[in-house]
Amino acid sequence: MAEFKVPELGEGVAGGDVTRVLVKVGDVVSRDQSVLELETDKATIEVPSSVAGRVTEVKVKQGDKIKVGAVVFVVDDAAPEAAASEAAAPAEVAPKPSASSSEPTPEQAPPTPEKTPKPEQPSRVVSMPARPAAEPSKPAREVAEPPKASRAPRRAAAPASPSVRRLAREVGVDIDEVQGSGPQSRISDEDVKEHARRLLSGLDTKPSAGRTMPLPDFERWGAVERQPMSNVRRTTSERLSHAWTTIPHVTQCDKADITAMEELRKTYREQVHNAGGNLTVTAMLVKVIATAVKQFPQFNASLDPQAEQIIYKKYVHVGVAVDTERGLLVPVIRDADQKNITQIAIEVHQAAEKARARKLTLEDMSGGGITISNLGGIGGTYFTPIVNWPEVAILGVSRGIIEPVWRNGAFEPRQLLPLSLSYDHRVIDGADAMRFLRWVVQAIEQPFLLSLLG
Fold first, then answer.
1. Does the annotation count 425 as an active-site position?
2. Which end of the chain, N or C, is less packed with Cβ atoms under 10 Å?
3. What pLDDT does 95 receive?
4. Confidence (pLDDT) at 418
């Protein structure tokens, strides 16, 4: 007999919701076969099997919340069918977990997103027992004498290296309570020490965004219904709260005359469609923004406040916010500065389709340098988009409207596109933001210049 357990899913991903179980008792599974569909807080992924044999028991069902290391099903790997599936399996696959394999220690850190296993490859299996639904908080050592308080269990493993976890244990700090200051909230030695100092001084260790007033009893005024937040909605809430409380936002607005660009778009729309893309305003703006950040590199940067450094990215990856039934997802168009508008239009269209079909991977949504959020298909004029941390800028786009514009001694009807640029004022000054936005507007208003961009 062999057990298939939920493998490691990526840094900071401790588990997810079961959306589909792809096997049942009696099925014969082979290595690399997709056996489970999980919705994590970042994406919906298909999990491949690392064992082969006839399924004798399935321990999860649709709707269950499971964690890394939880047993999904059991197979009889001694059955004739198992031997056949083993023979047909590729030679280089992840080994089956053995009975002698030890459970991971707290020092083991989750892998970085760049090393997240792809669905078509077997993931390394970790024998990790599922954590109970509710777990009491771990008190610090008696030396520190911090105030003891119960807490809700974290939904993701704390992103920290083994040495940092060891330091946390040595000073009596619960690593799950430490707020990381590094990329993707990664925890450093200094974060652990600062947390310990705050415990000893009696200061609140929670971020200000986490302090909320208790809700009133809404049922006093009528019937209510409570629904759990989805993983995507919960992560969106956490990330936007972090971005809003961490980044000093400023939003500047302008209008671009897209009358000529719309004529260009209509002229070449069918040609791009035949190539497999959709020549939308968003696709054209991706090219404009990708070129703009080459002129204004501070818009393709990230701030490292601990090291007091600004990280300028030499690559140009542009995120495109996609509205889905599960919430907002942001796939990334990589090397957008090196692609022409047709190529970008195809990639934007494919990314949006994958997002709505729940096929985006964690890698598809990682590594963006600046983001575009286009709400023009819904309506509105201006809005204040929140910077997608750790980026430092985001361009919001609203619906184009026909307005009278004074041109050549007379008013003419022109189609104007409202733009809203939000940015991190710690990295970008207002004057530079206005120069950047005006550069974008001028590129949009000159179709000939737009054609030169790719």
1. yes
2. N
3. 40
4. 97
